[in-house]
Amino acid sequence: MSFDAGLKAHLATGATSVCHAWRIARGDGVVMGFTDHDRELRFDGVVFRADSGLSALALQQGTGLSVDNTEAVGALSDGAIRETDIEAGRFDGAELTAWLVNWAAVDERQVVFRGTLGEIRRAGGAFRAELRGLTEALNRPAGRVYQKPCPAVLGDGACKVDLSQPGYVAERALEAVEDGQKFTFDALAGFDFGWFQRGRLTVLSGAAAGLVGTVKRDRFLEGGRVVELWEPLRAPIVAGDIVRLEAGCDKRFETCRLKFDNVLNFRGFPDIPGEDWQMALPVRSGETSGGSRR
């Protein structure tokens, strides 16, 4: 990546007017800008606030694949980064871009870091967030696993199921909520028992809007429909909030065929031998049908 010519010439003068700017893009679409300058900056359609108290430790980046050793440090405030949003997980994995900027001419700027937010720690009205560079993704194991279940995520590019089709999605208001984890609906007509199990629940309104949970159980109970998540949502959610339920998939070939009519895109290997095949013994009878021998 070449260095910006204008900024390079400015730095060569020896009398500089530079600062840092950060852009955070959360998974729910919210974009926030911060700077350590004493006045706000504007570029790329983002306002970079000067009153956020956000700063960053010196960047230590190398050519290896380890997590870049740097942190973002800032104060928690209602107008900038709120503790409730961190607790709810809204900043988990958020994309972050950092620039070195000539505040007197913001067109003279250079990206010095691009990555995501990692572990976030809170204490004493402040937070410290680990910054993870783009090479972090290269540390993850990759490759195809040969197994009976389908490894694709329902609705992704490999699966290709269109979840917007009728019968796969339901949007309803909650009748009751228990511990932010169990949700009761008065009626979900047209959906079989367990239809949403292993699916997703997305909150569309209220204080928890934008949060997503994975469905553990979907069952009928005392005349209503109860949907339970594996983990409670980390923000207040109350009766009357609107949620979106998406059908779940247990990754089996039969489910792909009968529930989603998507056999052509099934990514598993349903006929692969199971672990009991390792215990098979050779015989002379020539019978290889797998049936019992008498």
UniProtKB/TrEMBL annotation:
It holds the Pfam family Phage_BR0599. Signal peptide: none annotated. InterPro entries: Phage_phiJL001_Gp84, Phage_phiJL001_Gp84_C. Residues 194-276 form the Bacteriophage phiJL001 Gp84 C-terminal domain. It comes from the Bacteria. NCBIfam families: phg_TIGR02218. This is Bacteriophage phiJL001 Gp84 C-terminal domain-containing protein. It comes from Pseudooceanicola nanhaiensis.
